[in-house]
Structures are given as C-alpha cells and as structure tokens.
Amino acid sequence: MRKSINMSAALAAAEHHEAQQLTLTELIRAWSTVVLDGSDLRLRKWLQALGHRSAWDIQSGDLITCAQAMVQEGYKPSSANRDLSALGSAYRWAINRRLSPRGFRSPTLDVPRMEEGIRHVSLSDQELDALRARARGFRDRRFGVFVELLIDTGARKSELLERRWSDIDLDRGEILCAKTKTGVPRVLHCRPEVAGLIRRVFPRRDDDALVFEGRVPGRPVDFKKAWKTCVTDIGRPGLHMHDIRHVVAARLLRSGATLGVAAQVMGHSPQVLARRYGHLETAPLRQAQERSWRAAD
C-alpha cells in the first residue's frame, strides 16, 4: 500500500524556501570544490568584474557584455563560450540544490553563444601510436594511462580527471560518469590492454580516492606540462587534449557508426555532432542506397 503524500505541506515548504545569500565568487568557488576542474581559476576574469555581486542579481546582459569584451580583447569565441558553459553549469548546480531563489532562471540561458569556426583535426594511425608510445615514457606513468583513456573513450578531460576508483570496473573495461557536461550519465569503455595497464600502474586502488589525484588532496593533476612536452616530441605541438575527442568521433563515423550511436558514445548532442561531422556519416548512407538498389531489382 502506497503512503499518502501531503502535497499541501510540500508546497508550503517550497513557498517558504529562502535562497542562500551568495556572491557570484562564492557560488563559483563552492561549485568548483565539487567538480574539481579548476573552473574557479578559468573564470577569474569574470569574477573580477562580477564576483562581488549577488549571484542571483547577475543579468544576461551583463554576461553578454563580458563575453563580447573577451572577444574584443583577442580571446577566441570558443573561449568565451566555454566560460559561459561553465557559468551555466554552476547555476544549474545551485538550482538543483535549492540554493537559488524560488523560480530563479539562470541568466546564461538567454545568452546567445558566440559564433565560432569549426576546428578540424586529424591524426594518422602512426601519429596515434606515437602519442601512446611517448606518453608511456614519462616518469609519472599515470600520464600514459590518461592518454590511453583519452584515445579509447573520446572522453572530455574532466570526465577522466574527476573519476574515483569506485567509478571503474576493470573486469568489464567500464568507467561510470554519473555527472557529465550534458547532465546525462554515461559509461566509457576501454580496451582490455588498457585495463591491464591500469592494474600495473595502480597496484593499490582505494574506492574513495581520485584516480589521478594531484599534489593537493582531493584535486586531480592537470597533466598540462606533460601533454605539451608529449605532443611537441611527436611533431604535433598545436594538438590539444580536446582534439582527441574530435579524432575519436570522426573515427567512429568512418567505421560505420550512425550519428545517433556516435552521439551516445561521445556524450554529445546529435545536432552538434551532425553540424561538425555529418559529412563523415557515409557508411550508413551507402548501406541505405545499396538496400534501395536491391529492392529495385
């Protein structure tokens, strides 16, 4: 027998909900301690301008002005868009935890994203092999594991660095990402060879510990210096960590995966994937045409 629900009491409690009095700086710092991705540092220019104000008083016009100022000062539109996405994530976190006023709407929702050019990146099989080999040659062997996982999973950097050992099932080669940029949980997959490498590099694995914990307890290492050295050594100094996602997505589609399947693997929206990689979805199109030819015979 189901318990009765007192809806009136729930509504009354909601009406008396009081928002936390947080400045934008306080909100970003609180959120950053949860996501552990250094967003508080990346957003420092925004906090210098708006950080002293109440987080709930920030208007979309304020954000538009700041984003435009970034581009005018030479920042790439993609940088402004990433910052706006980070601000949006912080506001969603606050709303979900009922820190904001009742009925509050994130000001980021009414900010149009800056138009940015599509970055096309390609890596040959030989270059991927060189990247793997060089990454395994660092004193910190965790970097080799990190690069292998980037290539196997196509994950965002933060999706790997935020993982704890309790998220990883080495027997199945699966990594659970309960919290993602899109808000949809997903599972990353790695090859048995990489699972074996993880076992060798990490003989001790505490469920509660971060996999890639840095010198500061509770915060992951960022691998920026190691990455710069690695890509320079293989002759691709302009290669970004995030570029590996583009490479993996392109390889998925060239292998015959549909946009819908590739979007699920990458944790992306099909619309974004179609805009960037739709021209690569040739195998399913060819198969559809071949079926139509057979039907006509």
What's the CATH topology name of the largest domain?
A: hpI Integrase, Chain A
Query: Which outline best applies?
Result: globular
Q: Strand-and-helix sequence, N→C?
A: HHHHHHHHHEEEHHHHHH
Question: What is the subunit arrangement here?
Answer: single chain
DSSP helical segment count: 15
Stretches with pLDDT under 50, minimum 5 residues: none
SS class = mainly alpha
The CATH superfamily of the largest domain turns out to be Intergrase catalytic core
Please give the CATH class of the largest domain: Mainly Alpha
Q: Which strand order spans the largest sheet, edge to edge or round the barrel? A: 1-2-3
Determine the fraction of residues in helical runs and give it as a percent range. 40-55%
Count of DSSP strands: 3
What is the architecture of the largest domain at the second tier of CATH? Answer: Orthogonal Bundle
What proportion strand?
A: under 5%
Number of domains: 3
Mean pLDDT: 85
How big is the Rg? Answer: 22 Å
Q: Terminal Cα separation, in Å?
A: 61 Å
Largest sheet: 3 strands, antiparallel
